[in-house]
Design goal:
mainly alpha; 12 helices; about 70% helix; Rce1
Amino acid sequence: ILNLCALQVLFLGPLMQLAMDCPWSFMDGIRVAFDPWFWMLCFSDMRWLRNQVVAPLTEELVFRACMLPMLVPCAGPSIAIFTCPLFFGVAHFHHVIELLRFRQGTLSGIFLSAVFQFSYTAVFGAYTAFIFIRTGHLMGPVLCHSFCNYMGFPAISTALEHPQRLTVLSSYLLGVILFLLFLFPFTDPSYYGLPTPVCTLTSSPSSLCLS
């Protein structure tokens, strides 16, 4: 839960923008969250199930729970955090194949889209790998993955044109600062049992495995 809170802090700008543009009140959101009919609609939507449940669970299981324990003994925790996401980024290249097959865009546009998606997924993969190594639990990465799939990439261009631009952009900046401040405290291995299981796979001590 702490890992998800840290990620929500990072998305403070988009969340603030969403709250400003959404006509719902806080109590409206609470009522919907506890509405069984709403969740029945969600679970009957195959795209929602793929993005919010199946993809986060299976991808984190493969690329974090299975791949990291194989990389850490060979490369160490620090290098594994940045190596594992490269495989995760390449695994998303199937989207490029779909775009090429259905000719959805120019070749240069598809290439730029592929580079952007690889970069974004690699950075996100490094974050969830960091969480998994620091905490030793898969639930944190899965919840963060599901949340990121729901939020998508922040609409910075829209924020620049927002009527309350100063407030929204200040929220973006504040979110990044708070995220960096909370990153290590919220993933302190002492909360989860020191050392975490992944850290025991390497003989050389790493600062990532220490509180």
